[in-house]
Amino acid sequence: MQAVSAIGGTPLLKHQGTQASYWYARQRIGDRVVDRYIGRDTPELRKRIKAAEKQREDQRTLAKRNARLVAQLRAAGLPALDRQTGKVLNAMAQIGTFRLGGTLVGTHAFRLYSAELGVSLTDTLAVTEDVDIAAFEGLKLVIHDQVNPSLANTFRDLKLAPAPGLDRRNRPTRWAMPGGGTMVDFLAPKMRDSDDVLMLQPLGVYAQTLSFLNFLIAEPIPAVALYRSGILVQIPQPERYAIHKLIVAQRRATGSEAKARKDLAQAELLIRILAEDRPHVLEEAFEHAMAAGPKWRAAIGQSLRQKPLLAELMRPGS
């Protein structure tokens, strides 16, 4: 029997004729209403449900207050999630995706730097429907927990299905809405040449491995995405995000020039802000990346040659 407070939803008693009655928790996930089993009706379980209801009432009060704060932040001009992305991230947060090590990366993370840095970021650099979630494979060694319900079941309720990929063992790393719409990609740092796809054990999903990702998602920071009463996620440190973009801009495949230009534009905007407001953390992250190896230095150097003004900003003491 699961802990009542951990299940969430509204308690619902279902009578099974003259045999017995059973408690369920009714919860809305996306556009679907789901009833999750709690246990057989007993005086002890009723006490637990009553205590959990008091806790949920406190949570509803907090949610209302947070919703007002979210509305104020949106009115002040901070970027908010579109409805579909908000539903997906909210469902993922509710089942523990970010608590268990998932880090929001990519353009959705970039948009959240507006609040982190106290600046207005141009919308032309932040238009996307894709959701990118990255995590370390090694978290399975230290996190003895997992998302509940599973991401597969949660995505099914959101009408997201595994997207076909190139993996010969049919291990999906992307989930997509049929006919277009939001897509969710799972990523992990590539630490061994033999690994292209890994299982992220606490999240229960496969992830595509990428080089240089370990630098990006080390020591992520908390952030709140603006949707409903706010969604608590975690995102990369902005200085790591900026320098990572200098690297990946040079690693794009032929035909992805537009994405490379966007990479450099996002990096330039963040570096200009950080060089003025947080020069020491920017310098530290830059030195860390430059010391990581010749491939790192070559990619960063090429990007800085394309953006000579950034090279000036990255110089110590500039």
Give the radius of gyration.
22 Å
**Rounded mean pLDDT score:** 87
Largest sheet: 7 strands, mixed
SSE series: HEEEHHEHEHEEEEEHEEHHHHH
Indicate the overall shape.
Answer: globular
Strand content: 15-25%
Total beta strand runs: 12
The tally of helices reads 11
Report low-confidence residues grouped into runs of 5 or more.
none
Output the structural class. alpha+beta
Distance N to C terminus? 61 Å
The helix content, as a percent range, equals 40-55%
Layout of helices and strands:
Elements: H1 4-7, E1 10-16, E2 20-29, E3 32-40, H2 43-75, H3 83-94, E4 103-105, H4 107-117, E5 130-134, H5 151-157, E6 161-162, E7 174-176, E8 183-189, E9 197-200, E10 205-210, H6 213-217, E11 221-225, E12 231-235, H7 238-248, H8 257-277, H9 279-290, H10 294-306, H11 308-314
Parallel strand pairs: 5-8, 8-10
Antiparallel strand pairs: 1-2, 2-3, 4-5, 6-7, 7-8, 9-10, 11-12
Helix pairs in contact: 7-8, 7-10, 8-9
Describe the structure.
This protein is α+β, with helices and mostly antiparallel strands. The chain has 11 helices and 12 strands. The strands form 3 sheets. Strands 4, 5, 6, 7, 8, 9 and 10 form a 7-stranded mixed beta sheet that branches. It has a 3-stranded antiparallel beta sheet with strand order 1-2-3, with helices on one face. The longest helix has 33 residues. The model has no long low-confidence stretch (mean pLDDT 87).
